Amino acid sequence: MKNTKVIELMTENPVLIRPDATLEDAAKNMRDIDCGVLPVGTEDKLKGMITDRDIVIRAVAKGKDISKEKVADYMTKDVYGCHENDTLEQATDEMRKHRVNRLIVKDKADNVTGILSFGSILWKGVDADEVTNIVTHAIRKKVA
User: Fold this and answer.
1) Hey, how many other C-beta atoms are within 10 angstroms of the C-beta on 92?
2) Domain of 128: which CATH number?
């Protein structure tokens, strides 16, 4: 785990959505690319993140018309991230520290280049021992 770099496990080139897009547009993008999160903004100016859960809990469950409601009004503004060349250990430290399952990944110029999720670590991870090490590190408990 100490030598695995974020760039090896991240989902590359995430689709970004503009803050003035509708929640319906966001949901359609998520459906089309089969994901549950979109960074909001541009590669060099990140404003937040919108998740499928944000849309359902904050808008749909409250009877909002997602064809009219804007992403900016429902997105999560606090976004945490890491860099492509960070180690997996550094990334899981950030996830644990901020209690999040996803991090925005940036390059040296601070442009958005990917998303690292706990799921992608588990699904793209190498073997069972490494997955155990990742989980152990993430929760800071010994796994039997």
Assistant:
1) 25
2) 3.10.580.10
